Sequence to fold (609 residues):
Amino acid sequence: MAAADVQLERSFRQRFGDFWSKYGFAISLLVPCTIYMLFFLVIIAFNLLQLSLTHRVSLVEEVFPSVQNYTTLATSSQFQEAFIRTVVFVLVGTPLQLVAGLVLAMIIYRQFTGRGIVRSIFLLPVAIPALVTASIVAYMLFTYPFGHINDLLLGRLFFPGILTEPVKWYASPYSALGLALLAKVWRDMPISMLILLAGLQSISSDQYEAAESMGSSGWQCFWYITIPLLVPAISTVLVLRSIEVWKEFIFPFIIAPTYPILGVLLDHVYHRMRNPEMAAAIGVVLVLLILLTRLVLNFGTEKVRAYLVKV
Amino acid sequence: MSTTEKAREGPVRKNGEGHRQRINWGTIIWAVMLIMALFAILFPIYVVFKTSLADRASIVTGGRYPEPLWPFDPNFDQFKVLFGKEDFITAGLDSLWVALLSVTFALLLGTPAAFTLARFKFPGMATLALVIIAIRLFPDIASAVPVAEWFMRPPMVYIPPLIQVALAHALLSAPYVVFICQGVFETIPRDLEEQAQIMGASRLQAFLNVVLPVAMPGVAAAAIYTFLLSWNEFIFAYYLLFQSPNTTLPVFMLRLLTWTPQRNYLAALAVVLSLPVILFTFLAQRWMISGMTAGAVK
Fold:
């Protein structure tokens, strides 16, 4: 019995030794990075949940666990407004990002002289820090009452005027958040472009030649070949970009701080109201929304693909 | 014979012309789109450069004349003022220090992990790779809160704030380092390290002395990417440095924004902040692209 135990142990050791001599080096290279990431992941997930479930009654008194933060959020009109703004922001912003990226990708897809330089220029927006882009939009282009865009609209530059009064860009949630969205789309165009360009380049030219020889127009080629075969790339763009738009903070924070979306509201709650617990609850809501979007979009694009690509 | 040929030529040529004309229409639409796209991208960038050179009369118009598209009296005064300010210089040096530290952390953590992911296959590896990327699921704005709160607790609060920021930036950039370097290592033939091992090098020596030097251009690109990520990063720096006297350049810029600054001065700061990024993006374009689309493939 004891001998068998010893033998078992030895064989276990031997097997472990084999495993270690085979993979030990690989594992020890991988371990520091994994531990670092896992450590922060646990800190972030755990602290976020713990904070959001802590109800602070006063400076010294707190109740844990409690869903008080969530019920307060659910009834607060500020949160509801921010929630609706964020949903609209995502619903309008994601398709815009897709269209902007698709337009750039279709332009650059063609072979022409100077293509390399144009591609480098198309990559520029993403190279510029978001804070700089936001301040260009808010402080240099769309200023009130003067500034380039208002000058242009009033007919003070080259074109005849369209308006008689300068636009108060930051007085309405539509124009303020619209500008934030514009800046966001402008900055992220190159990323969608690169993904869609890779998708376009993977479509073989045989398909277009076959379609053309059967007499289909360019427009038909686009709708019945390019778009269906681009669905994987499009779904990647939609998933990634919608997550990015949910996460968005800097542009609305600089351009439309008076009309907070969820990220900006979180920052207001954390920095101005000094309420980390409530901020964490908003953070949890954001994470859940992102997970939900991901699931819905994955499911949805799978359905669309099944519908479009009939074999 | 000749007449029938002519008769035949007529419609054929017409047909050819019609065909050519259709292509021309496509080309015209394409060219218009190209010009519009170039304008939409270059105009805002032009405006920030122009404003950074503007004199006072070109930005404070009082509505008597439209803001000029090129300043009346372009000069470098704003840049001189900026580089003469001590807090700007300090912020710039702090930014540099944070970026270099985070590059060091991210490379030390990421390069070895990337090597393993590129070379070995063993059970549970996919899960480990997932752990490395999972951080990207959280919005920065949501993860900054628990990280900032965690760094406020007693043992961690003694870590200097700039190092805290560098640690956070390494957290954000390590996945990119892993991804870029994995791609680089996969292009290096296995024979190289096997040869080294046959000649008596250990696996570690083979990695450090043979594989890494060959992979250097790719690793350098990952380093540049990490550097720029840290140089641009705003949210974590803003949360971790909120009550600290230290600033990185983006946080410095935000503090400037809250006092409604002169626009030419703001533009000069914006140019200083973006120039290194624009230059490096042009120089290391191929690798920047692999970083930008990193999330798309996984």
